Amino acid sequence: MVDKATRSRMMSGIRGKNTRPEMIVRQGLHRLGFRFRLHDKRLPGKPDLVLPKYHAVIFVNGCFWHGHDCHLFRWPTTRENFWRTKIEKTVARDNRNKKELKRFGFKVLVVWECELRNNYEESLISLAGLISEKD
Known about the structure:
This protein has helices spanning 4-12, 20-31, 80-103, 120-132, and strands at residues 37-38, 49-51, 56-61, 107-112. The chain has 135 residues and is of the alpha+beta class.
């Protein structure tokens, strides 16, 4: 358990853009020849990457903040109701945004933080295949 000031400092250091997982995806896709726009505010959910040529968007999600069912996600044991509500709202918002983007004809791809932990090269090649794939 940490004191309130330390917790506040720690939480203020968490970024929503240009995170390490996002940078891995951006650099890897760029290296593979993909060109994209970043954080397009005109689209629902402000996708992390927008690939206009492929009419695709990519969200790079942190496992904790987006409630991914993997080894990196654990429900917090303090302020359980607060965190459960916060994460459930985030998951619901993610689903609404994905549905809206699909309605606009976008291919919606999600890359999870845990997928990039060990063998991210393999994940990026798989992602590149999904982007290029015709519907």
